[in-house]
Write a structure and sequence with these properties.
mainly alpha, 72 residues
């Protein structure tokens, strides 16, 4: 599970950098490389979104379950 979280953090950081470039410079790097509205572009954006949701959900779970005196 640790390797999967590391991969998801990498995807999330890359997605944040690409969105930052898009927001600041109005340049879509993913669309420039793979084309606008292609399947690859949509899959990459979906991976960023899924990684963010999974990390958010598992981060809360990890903190709750690491405390031995708290059993919900």
């Amino acid at each position: 599970m640790h390797e999967m979280r590391t991969i998801m953090y990498g995807i999330l950081i890359m997605g944040a950098i690409l969105l930052g470039i898009n927001g600041i410079f109005n340049y879509d790097v993913v669309a420039a490389i793979f084309g606008s509205e292609t399947v690859i572009t949509r899959v990459l954006y979906a991976l960023v979104g899924i990684s963010g949701v999974v990390l958010l959900a598992t981060e809360n779970y990890k903190e709750c379950c690491s405390c031995p005196e708290t059993h919900f």
